Amino acid sequence: MQTRRLQTKDDGLVLSTIKEISGKRIEERRRRDRITQPQLARAAGVSVRWLREIEAGNPKSKLDEHLACAHRLGLSTAHIMIPLLLMERRLSIPQELFLEEDLSELEDRCIALIFEHSSSTISRRRASYFDDAGDQE
Question: Global pTM?
Fold first, then answer.
C-alpha cells in the first residue's frame, strides 16, 4: 500500500490542513474531558466565538492559539509541530500522520532524540575544551 503524502510546495494548504486537524483534535479532547467552550476559551485567552473558529479549523486562526488550546487540554502538539518541521524542510508529509489519534509516542521519541543530540554535543564540546586547555599548559 502506497503512503499518500501532502506536498509542502503549497505552504498555505499545509497550514490550512494543520489548523483543520488541530481544531478537530482540540474539540474532540474538550468534549471528551467535558470542558465547555467558555471554560477553554477563558483558559486559553481567546473569545468563545474565536474558539469556535479554531475548532472549525478556520485558516485565519493563529497557530499560537491552537498551541494555547492544546496545552490547556494537555493535548500533544506533535500534530502541529512535526508537519511544520517537514514543511520547513520542503519534505512531503505522510497523510497518515494527520490521521493518528495520539502522537505522544512519536513526540516522546523526538524529545529523546533531541536530548541525546544535546548530550553528545555538550560532551564533545567539553572534551574539546579540556583538550585545548591541556595544550596551553
Answer: 0.73
